[in-house]
Amino acid sequence: MESNLSVSPGGAVGAAVIDQLARTKGWTRFLSVLLWIGSVFLIMGALAMMAMGAFAGSIGEEVSQQFAAIGGAVVVGVFYLLLALVYIYPALKLGNFSSRVSDLMSVPSESNLIAALNEQRAFWKYMGIWMIIGIALYFLIIIGAIITVGVAGAAAAAKGG
Q1: Which residues lie closer than 8 Å to 6 by C-beta, 6 or more apart?
Q2: Which whole-number Å values give the CA distances from 90 to 22, 86, 94, in the listed order?
Q3: Whole-angstrom distance, CA of residue 102 vs CA of residue 118
Q4: What is the per-residue pLDDT across 66-101, written as a single tens digit (0 to 9) for each?
Q5: CA 76 to CA 42: how far, in whole Å?
Q6: Is the backbone of residue 60 left (phi > 0), alpha (psi -120 to 50) or beta?
Q7: 100: Cα within 13 Å, side-chain hemisphere
Q8: What is the H or E stretch that residue 105 is in?
Q9: CA atoms within 13 A on the CB side of 74
């Protein structure tokens, strides 16, 4: 299938290419901003969880409960920080893509086109890797649930029989 999206032989980029990329620029900028906002909320949540864990001892709980509260809050806080880090890279790549498209609109050169497409490639590679990780985690969770149900069923059968 032939496409009218091409780079002209002289290194200048055709108007059709610029138009197609310019039409995605606003959406990629919007998604980048949403990812940044999500990262900020996750960081604030992480700090709040860690602060709650740090002050859990001041509300008069027993010592063992204090350590459990502190440990649980810190674990959740660290998890939130890790999620924030996961969000930051795609936010950067989408923002950079939008900026490179703006550069391309100003100076329609092959190097600006390559720079924009490189940012987009990096974003999709990152998302693809996370999809593979997510599918693997789902698979492990399903296997773990099956094993847990099997062990619980065997234990219940052993008690009853």
Answers
A1: 14, 17
A2: 19, 8, 6
A3: 14
A4: 556 567 778 888 899 999 999 999 999 999 999 999
A5: 11
A6: left
A7: 21
A8: helix 63-106
A9: 9
